[in-house]
Amino acid sequence: MPRHPARRAHVLALIGAGLLIVTFGTMGIELGNEMARHGNLDRQSTAAGNYLRGLHHATSDARICHYAWMAEHKPQDGSCYVQAIQQLSDARRGFESFRVVQLREGGGRVEPLQSVWQQLETISAWPHSPEGTPAGGAQLLADLDQNLSILSRASTLDQADRVANMLRNTSWQRRLALLGILTGVFSLVSAGWVLDRSSLAAARAEASSRDLALRLRATLDSLSLGVAVFGADGHLWHWNEQLAVALGLEKSFFKPGLSYNDLSAVLVVDGVPLLEPLEHVETSLAKGQPAPPVVVECKGINGADLELCRTLFFAPDGAAERRGFVLTAADITMRLRSERALGEAQKLRALGQFTAGIAHDFKNLLTVILGNLELAAEHDLPDQVEQRQEYLSAATHAGHRSEALTSQLLSFMRRQQTGVPDCFDLANLFSLLDGLLARVIGPRIVVECADVSGVWPVRADPAQLESAVLNLAINARDAMPSGGRLRIAARNVTFSVNADLMSLPVEEGRNMRVVSDPTPLPAGDWVRLDVIDSGSGMTREVLDHLFEPFFTTKREGAGTGLGMAMVLAFSQQVKGRVVVATGSGSGTEVSLWLPKAAALSAAQVLQPAVLPKINKPAPSQTLQVLVVEDDAAIRDIVVTILSMAGHRVLEAGDGEQAFDVAAAAEGPLDLLVTDIQLPGPLDGLTLSRVLVERYPELAVVYMSGDLTADSKLPEGGVANARLLAKPFRRDGLMEVVTAALSARTGV
């Protein structure tokens, strides 16, 4: 981490003060040592000098007194000579110390010192009387005096050198001390300068931080969502003004150090707190690593739609005291309104596509119905009864298919499964398709239906299977605008183990495949129904979106994209699979994998629908029935069928009229057959409840085009009522009426 300038100033100040202390301390120590050393040297040099002067004085006295005694022989001269000789003899005791000092002070004194010592030894052997001076004694004294003079001059020069050296050492010490003082002062001045610059930088940084804080505050306050920053201990650090507005609280409620638990305690709607417990946040912070934000949408205490988001933050250096979490609150009321509006627009668009698709499919069915009815009308001669019956049967079958298509569409929109799969023989389906597809597909496409006499019966709803095959055939027709060949075949397949349909061998170059369910097909007996065209095939992009509702490659208005979605829904209902295989220039093969039905007798296997013969049933009992239906054509059919059954039938077009008719009727009502959706204030459910209160034994049948075979009794309906889905046939109406009457009587 980079050092702060103030810390550098502190370091420089410490260095400067240390240098000054060391310099002055060293100077004091060195000065004391030098003075002690020079004092000791001076003491030794002074003692050696006194010794040398004593020798030199004694030698001079001996020579002078000897020459004086030789000239006059005075006793005092003789005594002077003897005393001087005695001093020279006694000087031998201090000579060793003198010699050490002389040798330490400088070199070149060995020979004079040796001569002085020998001469002193010689003199010490002389008799202590003037007469006893040996021959050559005067010369010896002269030589001794000369050697002492040499030593005296050398000592004087050494002392001068020592003084000069001391002066030189003192000058060096002064320069060193001056350098230390200057360095210390410079360090202190530098420290002061750095401190001044650091204080200026600190002032600038403080101003910049204050400016940044103000800008951040202005930025936070300008946000459209509320922001609150909490520390790891759950106390509030910062917040913006929008937070109080979004949460529906007073601005004075938020203060520095506000506890997160206190905020959570006031944000409670219907007894449920809007914020997560602080313990959860602390657990996430304790892990020390970033975690995904926690987002929740809820109603605020002010009724606004809120999006609350909690995120964690950590300091770059990992310091625990600089970690915490941020809580944001956004008012998403307008966004949800926009999303709802967009959803409604998308629903309307899908509804338009869906309506166009229904119209397209029903036009095909109406073409078959009207065409066959026209052909039947033209064959009205007695010998053409059989052919007319064939056309009427085809028209009736197309009507049944339109009924199945309606139920299938309702089931698809509600995401429900309709009906219970039946046992169905594919031979009957193929015999029907062989003639029907030629009229639907057109003459440019050759339709081939393979022999399926040995194929097992399948467990599927016949009408839905016919619709699925018809949808696949129409898709194949659109894939061959210039004509081609359409082949429909079926075969038995047995898997001993679960089979992955995507791993089956490639057939006829169709190497691109997609399956409706990627899970393996369960082991067992299956019937594979193939619809194969000779078109150009599909691209990978089309194949990837094939089962999506409203996905189509046809031009606008030519298709809805619901065909394959309905085929997929059919396969899911029978717990089968749809496999689509295609290839460039190899056409497309759609395979329906259908479960084999359990073995049934021939009477149990469903046969294709034929036109029923209408026989007037023998009335078992005469009942008074009220029929309420706003559609006059449907009302006439119901009234006619019930009248043919021998019942006394009353009719009404809406709920109010039905109430009046019931009030004017003679005797009690036995049965009410009413549409659920009636115009006016009285719908079918309300009307039935009112009439049941008046006639407790009344049986009720509800009719509606929104009902399917597995629909449940609508909320608000009368207990034991029965449901009749539109469109219906005479047999279906009579079965429901019988069931309603039986439920009334408890049979």
The CATH topology of one domain corresponds to Heat Shock Protein 90
Structural class: alpha/beta
Instruction: Output the strand order for the largest sheet.
Output: 9-11-13-15-14-12
Using the coordinates above, name the CATH class of one domain. Alpha Beta
Write the CATH homologous superfamily of one domain: Histidine kinase-like ATPase, C-terminal domain
In summary, what is this structure?
It is built from 18 helices and 20 strands.
Outline the structure in words.
It contains 18 helices and 20 strands. With 747 residues, it is of the alpha/beta class. Among the domains are: 221-337, 2-Layer Sandwich (Beta-Lactamase); 338-413, Helix Hairpins (Orthogonal Bundle), CATH 1.10.287; 423-595, Histidine kinase-like ATPase, C-terminal domain (Heat Shock Protein 90); 624-744, Response regulator (Rossmann fold), CATH 3.40.50.2300. The strands form 5 sheets. The chain has a 6-stranded mixed β-sheet. A hairpin with a 3-residue loop joins strand 14 and strand 15 (587-595). Helix 9 runs antiparallel to helix 10. Mean pLDDT is 78; it is low at 415-420, 556-560 and 600-619.
